[in-house]
Structure formats: structure tokens, C-alpha cells
């Protein structure tokens, strides 16, 4: 008799049926379908802004499925490809064990193909999004993780993943961080770091950072030109202050605080409670983490005036767009300077882009669009999570990222409240 004979056959799951129709139901516990699969017992799962696209019925989804792509849990079963015979494949195929605590990126990635090797793991040809019609989600008591050896992070064995911290520091940090905080590593924190990293490393931001005008900024050895500090001032706008927007602001501040360039950030959201939360978070961060720049949270109209005043009407060096709708991307275009960059991590639906090629030409705008490759952003996100436990550690405070931890029965109500901007980050304890 194998251990799986004792495993439960049915489980509780939060399932999407149709637009605005979320139900808590009993469904079969998933089984291993492929030798690369792992089954994970989910301890906590989170509700995310991008779950709202399916919740609202956008994107042509019809299939009833388990929701959610953010989860943390414990391995309960492994396919036949796990064990010491799997040398030469991603490390977890030979080291992952039943009982290990794991957190998963929100997409599957094989870790073995050219796309994954280049670091673009969110676009792995074998990639699938959890909590979508193609793969059951994490808002359930158990989940099947395909290609788990290339996808999961083993929190029980911090040697198995790289970080800027030493092994001992990782172990100590992990012992002190709550699961509700580690859960943010599945999507929102890596995505925030991804947005900030792309903006800070954009070729059009380089002149300010290097002190050399474009294109000397590409050639570190070129002594021909340098710029006055006042010309190097960086102006950033962050559009959308939901949970990912908050993570983006914290990450951007962390990166800027390590630079010796003047900077100013306007964080924008029409919802007052979100602006209040981002300011509470900002005020909690110590001076070393905030840097010496300006940081304000404003409504759309106020922010337009602020950018005009700060930049003499020229516009932002870069705009980080975290929402993914037409008005947010229009605002990004309005706020960005000529030769500026727009980084967009929001999921865009209909209607299509609200500007023409000619408008982009007339401003020399660069765009970086798309999903975060969580797998490769994980080390930076983990280090920031450890460093900023002051804002990522708590639950329910005016300055904490996670608003509530609730049982699955509250899911229909939590989806509705989240959709109406009445609540921030919600975590489901699937066993409550
Ligand atoms: Zn998410
Ligand atoms: Zn791959």
C-alpha cells in the first residue's frame, strides 16, 4: 500500500464558473499525470489583480476551472522523474523530496530550453499559467505542478537557489518570515522588481545614471562628455498602486537609494485609500531604503501637474504602468518625456492601444511590455523581501502589504470587494 492510498480523494477549491461567479466546491484531488509532475498541498494562496481579468469575464474564457496562480505549500507526491537518477536536469529533479516547502512562480517553466536558459522563463514554450483554462490554479487544497523540477523553489533547501545572501543568511531569514510574506514571491514582488529593474536599466535611462549624454552613455570608456548633476535628475511615475504597484514603488526606491543621482517619483492612483497605503509604506521605510529623492502619491490630475512642474513640461524619464488598461497606458504616454521609456507589466485586454505609430514616432518612445519571468527575478525579490520585512512582513496594518488572511468560504465576497477596490491583497488559508 503506498502513502497515496491514505491521501484524501476530494478537496476544497475556489472555482470560476462565469463572469462574477466564484464558487467554493469539492473537487477531486489532482493526481500525477506526467513523470515531471509534483503534487503540492497548498497552505496559502493569494488573490491577484490579474485574476480579475478572468473574474470579469474578459479574454474569452469559458471553461470552469480552479482560480489562482499564487500559492505556497508542501510537496506531497512526486512523479517518476524525481530522484538521484535525474542528474543533468534542473537540480530539483534530483533533490526535491516529499515534505519540502515550496513556492511557485505563477507560470510553469521547464528550465531546460533555449528560452529558459536565456532567462526569459515566463515565455518557455512549455509554459502554462496556473489558474487559467489550460491549467488548474492554486486556490485549492492541492495543486498539480507540471515540470515542477524546473518551476518550483524549494524553501526547505535554500542551497538549491541562488541569492545575494549567503546560505546561512538565507536559512536565518527563512526561519523568521511568515508564509503569507513568502507567498508574495510567487508573483507580485518579483513583478514589482521586474518593472523597476527594466526601468532602471533601460538604455534611455542610462544617460542620467552614467552622467554621459546619449549615445556616449553606451560606451563607459568614452571620456568626451559628462553632464551636470541637474541634467541627470530622474523623474519616474508609477501608475497603479494596487499590491504590485506597492511592490514596484518599494523596489524602485531600493534601487534608486543605491545611486547618487537626484530623483523624484510620483505614484499615481485615483483611489485615495491606495494612495494612503503607499504613503504609509513609504513612511515606514528607513532613510537608507528611501534614498534622498522625493516621493509623492497623487491623483491623476495632480500627478500631471506635478510632472509638469518637476520637469519644466518635458516629462518623466520613465513611466512604470502596472494597471493594463487604456486609460493607464494613455496616461503613461502623456507623462513620458521624448526619448523616454514606458515599462508596462499590466495585463492588457480590449480595447487596443490608444495611440498611433506616428504618436510614438513623434516622442521617440520605447516600450517594454509583458509578464514577469519570476523564475529569474526570484533571487532579487527574495533579497528585497528579507530586507524590507518592515513593509512585507505584516498583515492587516495600514502600512502592510497583505490586508487579510481568510478561509476559502469568503472567496466570493473577497473577489467582489477586490474587484471594487474595497480591499488590498487577500490571502486564502485553504484549510481554515
Ligand atoms: Zn498574481
Ligand atoms: Zn523552458
TrEMBL record:
Keyword Metal-binding: yes
Residue stretches making up the Alcohol dehydrogenase-like C-terminal domain: 262-367
Originating species: Mycena pura
Gene3D superfamilies named among the record's database cross-references: Medium-chain alcohol dehydrogenases, catalytic domain, NAD(P)-binding Rossmann-like Domain
UniProt-listed InterPro entries: ADH-like_C, ADH-like_N, GroES-like_sf, NAD(P)-bd_dom_sf
KW Metal-binding (keyword) present: yes
Name by which UniProt lists this protein: Chaperonin 10-like protein
Taxonomic superkingdom: Eukaryota
Lineage, opening ranks: Eukaryota, Fungi, Dikarya, Basidiomycota, Agaricomycotina
Domain Alcohol dehydrogenase-like N-terminal: 35-148
Molecular function terms, GO-annotated: metal ion binding
Keywords per UniProt: Metal-binding, Zinc
Cofactors: Zn(2+)
Amino acid at each position: 500500500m503506498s502513502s497515496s492510498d491514505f491521501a484524501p480523494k476530494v478537496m476544497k477549491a475556489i472555482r470560476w464558473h462565469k463572469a462574477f461567479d466564484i464558487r467554493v466546491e469539492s473537487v477531486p484531488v489532482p493526481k500525477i499525470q506526467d513523470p515531471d509532475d509534483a503534487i503540492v498541498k497548498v497552505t496559502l494562496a493569494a488573490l491577484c489583480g490579474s485574476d480579475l481579468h478572468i473574474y470579469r469575464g474578459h479574454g474569452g474564457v469559458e471553461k470552469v476551472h480552479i482560480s489562482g496562480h499564487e500559492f505556497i505549500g508542501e510537496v506531497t507526491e512526486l512523479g517518476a522523474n524525481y530522484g538521484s537518477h535525474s542528474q543533468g536536469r534542473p537540480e530539483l529533479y534530483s533533490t526535491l523530496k516529499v515534505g519540502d516547502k515550496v513556492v511557485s512562480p505563477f507560470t510553469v517553466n521547464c528550465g531546460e530550453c533555449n528560452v529558459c536558459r536565456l532567462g526569459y522563463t515566463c515565455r518557455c514554450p512549455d509554459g502554462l499559467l496556473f489558474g487559467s483554462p489550460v491549467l488548474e490554479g492554486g486556490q485549492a487544497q492541492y495543486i498539480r505542478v507540471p515540470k515542477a523540477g524546473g518551476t518550483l523553489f524549494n524553501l526547505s533547501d535554500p542551497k538549491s537557489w541562488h541569492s545575494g545572501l549567503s546560505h546561512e543568511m538565507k536559512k536565518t531569514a527563512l526561519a523568521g518570515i511568515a508564509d503569507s510574506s513568502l507567498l508574495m514571491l510567487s508573483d507580485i514582488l518579483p513583478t514589482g522588481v521586474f518593472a523597476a529593474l527594466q526601468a532602471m536599466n533601460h538604455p534611455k535611462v542610462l544617460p542620467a545614471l552614467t552622467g554621459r549624454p546619449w549615445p556616449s552613455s553606451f560606451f563607459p570608456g568614452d571620456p568626451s562628455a559628462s553632464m551636470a548633476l541637474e541634467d541627470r535628475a530622474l523623474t519616474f511615475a508609477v501608475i497603479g498602486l494596487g499590491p504590485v504597484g506597492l511592490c514596484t514603488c518599494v523596489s524602485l526606491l531600493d534601487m534608486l537609494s543605491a545611486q547618487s543621482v537626484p530623483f523624484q517619483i510620483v505614484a499615481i492612483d485615483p483611489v485615495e485609500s491606495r494612495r494612503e497605503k503607499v504613503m504609509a509604506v513609504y513612511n515606514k521605510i528607513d532613510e537608507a531604503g528611501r534614498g534622498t529623492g522625493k516621493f509623492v502619491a497623487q491623483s491623476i490630475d495632480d500627478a500631471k501637474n506635478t510632472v509638469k512642474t518637476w520637469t519644466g513640461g518635458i516629462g518623466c524619464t520613465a513611466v512604470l504602468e502596472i494597471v493594463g488598461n487604456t486609460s493607464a497606458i494613455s496616461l503613461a504616454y502623456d507623462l513620458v518625456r521624448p526619448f523616454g521609456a514606458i515599462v508596462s507589466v499590466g495585463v492588457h485586454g480590449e480595447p487596443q492601444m490608444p495611440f498611433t505609430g506616428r504618436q510614438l514616432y513623434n516622442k521617440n518612445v520605447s516600450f517594454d511590455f509583458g509578464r514577469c519571468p519570476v523564475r529569474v527575478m526570484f533571487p532579487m525579490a527574495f533579497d528585497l523581501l528579507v530586507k524590507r520585512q518592515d513593509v512585507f512582513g505584516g498583515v492587516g496594518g495600514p502600512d502592510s502589504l497583505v490586508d487579510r488572511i481568510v478561509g476559502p468560504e469568503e472567496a466570493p465576497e473577497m473577489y467582489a470587494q477586490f474587484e471594487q477596490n474595497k480591499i488590498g491583497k487577500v490571502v486564502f488559508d485553504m484549510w481554515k
